[in-house]
Amino acid sequence: MRAGSSKCGRWLSARTAEKAQAATDAALAAVFREEAGRLTAALVHVLGDFDLAEEVVQDSLVAALEKWPEQGIPEKPGAWLMTTARRRAIDILRRDKRYREKLALLERTPLAPEPTEADDRLRLIFTCCHPALAQEAQVALTLRAVAGFTTTEIASAFLLPEATVAQRIVRAKRKIVDAHIPYRMPDQVELAGRLDGVLSVLYLMFNEGYLSRGAQVAMRRDLADDALWLTGLVATLMPDQAEVIGLLALMTLNLARSKARFDKAGEMVLLPDQDRALWDGAAIAEGVQLLERAGAMRATGPYQVQGAIAALHSEAPSWEETDWHQIVVLYESLIRMADSPVVRLNRAVALSHFAGPEMALGEVNDLAMALDGYHLFHATRADLLDRTGEPALAREARLRALELCQNPAERSLLERKLRRSPRA
Fold first, then answer.
1. Which CATH superfamily is domain 323-424 in?
2. pTM for the complete prediction?
3. Domain-by-domain residue ranges, the chain?
4. How many CB atoms lie within 10 A of CB 200?
5. Nearest to residue 247, comparing CAs of 228, 225, 223, 221?
6. Residue 327 and residue 309: Cα distance in Å, rounded?
7. pLDDT tens, position by position, 261-305
8. Residue 416 C-alpha from the chain's centroid
């Protein structure tokens, strides 16, 4: 009895230690996501050197990983990281005579550990989105430097090889140095020329926060909130730009439904099954008001159209009362403005609820070559095959989706559906 009790006690102790370690790891990851972009932006502001800023930030995060598990996360982790980064940067600069001016500047310049109204990240976004850089390079570099995305995450977002994205980032950094692109907010004349890149970055930041492509967490709410806040700052800078307001509306409407997207166990709840009483009615009203404000400017763009689609979902009293015909019409407008295989996939989903799954499946199959590496293509195809009475083919498509998917909540959803599907 005692031996059994001892084994049980050791097992419980090990399980408790595992849970404590997992909680510590999650807390560290949350702090790093919150602070890494702000820290990089502040250092680029002073140093004017992306590579050096990233090196210093990484060194600071490694130092935190070594010390915080034993000492505990500081009361002000941003200040701790900023102090550590500043010391590390000074050490590096002192060893290289070429950086004498930057060393003097860093030694006399305080680095604010807390965000300011004119957040350094916004300044860094506009620097990365300089028209001297190709737009795909602008977006990749900004996601890396400001949002803290890994090269793998950026490649996944664009459905591109990782090596391609890495080359874009390296070339963009080199171009900024070679072209002497200044780290500053552009003036009003220059703002419009950089707007498309900035909005693309904020849109991808939000999407990654709203439904992460990584394997660690289902949703990175802090990243989504950051994207919303930064978009609000751009809207303040450019109040007459309809697409900025449209993107702000889109983010607001999507976040308004976020509480109903996962159950207490962290499992994903699909739109037909969500408890709409959990949706934030005030935020939905705010999002619709923003869309109306953008519409009054008579300069319709893709973010406004996506916002209008989100509004139709958000204002529908129930799944059955969703205006699918109007959603299909909006997707057709979106295709004319910003055609892509993913937009066509989303249109096919809406079409399936309006014209039937058979017609939608034909359109989805046409996207096979373009989207074979995209898990939602296979998951969508599996659902349509189920609805057209092809369970064996649906299972095969769902297994392929599971191979490609990393998000834990999406994987769990796919696994639940696979358990319910018949084996061949």
1. Tetratricopeptide repeat domain (1.25.40.10)
2. 0.74
3. 22-102, 323-424
4. 19
5. 228
6. 6
7. 999 999 999 999 999 999 999 999 999 999 999 999 999 999 999
8. 25
